[in-house]
Each structure stands twice: as structure tokens, then as C-alpha cells.
Amino acid sequence: MISDVKALIVVLVISAVIFRVAKPIALKFSSEQDYLRRRNVWFLLTITAFVSPSFWLYVLIAIPTLIWAGRRDSNPVALYLILLHVVPPISIEIPVAMVHALFDLDNYRLLSLFILIPTALKLRKNDDPARVRGLSAADVLLLGFGLLQVALFVPPDLPNHVILADSFTNILRRAFLFLIDVYLLFYVVSRSCSTRRAMVEAQAAFLLSSAIIAALSFFEFLRHWLLYVDIAARWTENPTAGFYLMRGDMVRAQVTSGHPLALGYLLAVAFGFWLYLKRHIESRWLRVGGTLLFWLGLLGAYSRGPWIGAIVAYFAYAALGSRALLRLSKAAVVATFAIGVIAISPFSDRVVSVLPFMGGTIDSGSTGYRERLAQRSWELIKQSPLFGDQLAYLKMEGLRQGEGIIDLVDTYAQVALFYGLSGLICFAGPMLIGLWRTLRRAWSNRGDADLEHLGLSLAASILGALTMLSAASFEFGIAKMYWALAALAAAYAAMRIPVQER
Fold first, then answer.
1. Torsion of Cα atoms, 317 then 322 then 327 then 329, to 10°
2. Based on the number of CB atoms within 10 Å of its own CB, is 190 exposed (0-12), middle (13-18) or buried (19 or more)?
3. How far apart are CA 151 and CA 144, in angstroms?
4. ∠152-158-159 over CA atoms, to 5°?
């Protein structure tokens, strides 16, 4: 309990500083009432998580709080994004009579049930002509992906090759969870962010929560102390809930993300958003400080894929806009300077040691493992190209690691293995359509520099996210932000600009 109190104090002090520094910036994009309410709800849920001995006590306080805040917020998507990682994604089964368990409940689903569903019901009654109307191609592809997940049962990879049987109840469960976990998020974000202000406010809210996470990430990395793991150990009976993930002799931060890779993914996406938002900040020190904060957070996650994803986003943002050659030259100069700073910093050895192309040897074996995994995955995909092989795990036993798992950390391979190329098309289609339409819209609005750069930063974030998925499993915040990005792209492409904003 003493360690929980110490961790809570650290979290509250660091987050209070971030909220205070970020307030003038946040008020450029949202009302003071909305900002203060979101901040207060964030603090309330954080304190509740640290002092609650049970997940269900947290739920008891979170549900009325989310309902109250959602009804009063002028932009529920912004509220959703700022609370997306207020606590770790700890899943607890909902026990019911006659059934082993209804489904798992976590913070993501609390937000869906009590913020997104009420918002979706309001949107059904909203005749705003500026928002996406009807079913777009992205909607159809996404629903097609859901249909494949419902129709094709992929048994979990259990010990001793135990294969669970499917059932009608399980089919209904998969359909319901796809709707509230995936399509509801896409629908609400793509329809709610129908104006420039709504979209920028939502991105700013996500950036604010990500700034807190970045600061906490760097703290965890420096102090070798994971602040939130005791919550998982207290709320679950999982003996590994309090374990630390190491790389070499370094603790990898995870904060409330559930995994260092997920933490890095979220911060890389946030960095892509920051490339646009910092244009609205007059202070050069704040712009530089914000950039440094996100990169220190990425360092704390100690994950190569997110570093690459953030770099891809940075150079894509420079390359996709007008005067691309000049912007790329400036980006290269900044990147060279950053590399020089890292080279003379105390962190240089830690960074180089995990980069195989620079001679790093830490976890170098994982590169060879992933090559073998990719080769075997491609062999199985060619055998069942259309709808995949739902028992593919049984054919990959040679790749089972010492931890007893087949570490399939490539989202594209995961989807293609179990749902075939048809599943991969339905999975990637909404994002690729959104990316193309976002770029086309941004390029057609070069007379409006702010709108152009909003689209460019969104496209850059998407390219960074797509890059990272080749080395990340599709879980936790990675999945949530993937669909949120696709939805923001759909909203941006359909956005109508009022005369007074032109």
C-alpha cells in the first residue's frame, strides 16, 4: 500500500505540472469548462484506480462519472481520447448465471459503453450536413472485416494444443464486441469530428494525455520503477501482472499502455499530431520542449519500432507538403542535429545497443526470429490465401519461444494468417482509403495553410502507424488508435469548411 501511495504522489505531481503548462495551449482549442471538467475527471479516475482494492469499485465510480462528463462535454470524442489511457487496460470477466462469463470489461469498454454509445445515439438524430452520411467504402470494408471475425473462429493459442469449440453464444459475443470495440469507435469519431475545431480539439486532448504519459514514461525509465503495475496485481489474480519487461539491463516503461510497444506506438502517433499543433504555439521554448518530451517518452518505451514510426511520420510530414525539397532539407538538418545530441548524451550507448544496423547486440536474436516467423507465415498464407487458416498456430510449433508462446508481432501477418488476403484488404482498406482521401483533400486546400497542415500531420501519423504495425501485435491502444486514425481521416476528407473559417 505504501508503494501505491508513493506511485500516486509521483503521478499526481507530474500530471499536475503537465496540466498546468498545457492549459494555455489547450484553451486555444477547447472551452475552459470542458478543459477543467476533463482534467478533474482524469484526476478522479486516476486516484480511484490507485486507492481502489477492486476493479469493480473503480467501475462503480467510473460509470456515473463518465455518464455525467459525457453529457456535459461539447466534444465527447475529446473526452474519450483524454481518458483512453487514464488507467491500464486491465480486463476482468463479467460473471453471469448460466454462462461462464459474459465478456471481459476494461477501461476501453467502459468508455465505449458510457461515452461512445450515448454519443452515437445523439449523432443518429443529428442532421448536420458537414458530417459523413450513410455508409462509405471505409464503413463497408470495416464491417466486412467484422463479418469475417464473426464467421471465422480463431481458437486461442492454449497449452497442450487444447482447441476450444465455437458456439452460438460465442458468435453473438464476437459480433457484439466488434461493434462496441471497433465499429462504434470508427462511427463516432468519423461522424463527430466534422469541423476543423472538433477535430483539432480531439487531437489536442489526445496530445495532452500523451504528454502526461510521455513524462511518466521517462520517469519510469530513469528510476526503473513501473508506477502502475501494482494496480494490475491488486485487481487481478494474474501472477505475472506485476512483472517488469526488460531490454538488456534496462526497464522498459509502459505507464498505462499495457506494454512498452503499445506505449511507443501511442507516443509516435501523438508526435505526428504534435507536428501540426505546435504551429499554434508562439513560444519556441514550448515547441522545442514538447518535441523533446515526446521523444524522451519514446526513449522510455525503449522500443525500436515506435522510434522508426515517429521518424517516418516526421519525414512524411515534410515530404508530403508544398516546398517538399526545402522542408526535407530542414528535416534532415534537424535529424542530424538530434543524432549528434544523442551521440554525446548519457543515453547514446543505450540507444545504439538496441539498433542492429548500428552494431547493437541487445535482443539481436529477435531479428532472426522475426525473419523466420515472416517466412513461415508467408508459407501458410500461400496455402490458404483467401480466408486464411484459423488453426495456423498448430502449424507454427517450431517458432514457439521459451515463454511458451508464438510471438506473432506482425499485425499484417496475423490478419492474413487467420483471415486471408480478403481479411487483410478489409483490415487495411479503411486506413488506406482515408490516407489517400486525406492527402487529396490537403493538397487541394493549399490556399488554407492551416487546413493543409492538419491533413498532412494526420497523413504522416497514419504512415507512421502503418509502419509500426509490421512489428507490433494488434492489441491495447495500438488497435484503438489505428481505428481512431482511420476515422479521423474519413472525417477530414468529408469536412466542410464554414465560410467564416475560409
1. 120
2. buried
3. 10
4. 150
User: Is 387 within 8 Å of 152 (Cβ atoms)?
Assistant: yes
CB 306 within 8 A of CB 478: no
Contact indicator for 126, 90 with CB cutoff of 8 Å: no
Residue-by-residue DSSP string for 381-440: HHHSTTT--TTGGGG-GGG--TTSS-----HHHHHHHHHHHHHHHHHHHHHHHHHHHHHH
CA atoms within 13 A on the CB side of 303: 27
Given the C-alpha cell 519525414, which residue does it identify?
A: 315
> To the nearest 5 percent, what fractions of the chain are helix, strand and coil?
70, 0, 25
Which single residue is written with the C-alpha cell 503548462?
21
| pTM (predicted TM-score) | 0.94
- Write out pLDDT tens, residues 69-123: 999 999 999 999 999 999 999 999 887 766 667 889 999 999 999 999 999 999 9
Q: What is the C-alpha to C-alpha distance for residues 6 and 318, in angstroms, rounded to an integer?
A: 43
Distant-in-sequence, close-in-space partners of 313: CB < 8 Å, separation ≥ 6: 268, 269, 271, 272, 275, 460, 461, 463, 464
Written in H, E and C, the secondary structure of 174-202 is: HHHHHHHHHHHHHHHHHHHCCCHHHHHHH
Distance CA 379, CA 372 (A): 11
**Per-residue model confidence as pLDDT tens digits over 152-180:** 999 887 766 677 788 898 999 999 999 99
Which residues, listed in sequence order, are joined to residue 246 by a DSSP beta bridge?
251
Three-state SS annotation for 316-349: HHHHHCCCHHHHHHHHHHHHHHHHHHHHHCCCHH
Distance between CA 428 and CA 130 in Å, rounded?
25
167 burial class (0-12, 13-18, 19+ CB within 10 angstroms)? exposed
Give the C-alpha distances (Å, rounded to integers) separating 92 from 54, 104, 110, 234, 325.
10, 5, 12, 12, 51
Q: Decide: 393 and 400 in contact? Cβ < 8 Å.
A: no
If you average pLDDT over residues 268-289, what whole number do you get?
Answer: 96
Contact between 292 and 209 under an 8 Å Cβ cutoff? The reply is no
Count of CA atoms in the C-beta half-sphere (13 A) of 225: 12
Name, in order, each residue with C-beta under 8 angstroms of 483's C-beta and a sequence gap of 6 or more: 142, 182, 185, 186, 189, 430
Each domain of the chain, given as residue ranges in start order, spans 2-322+377-501
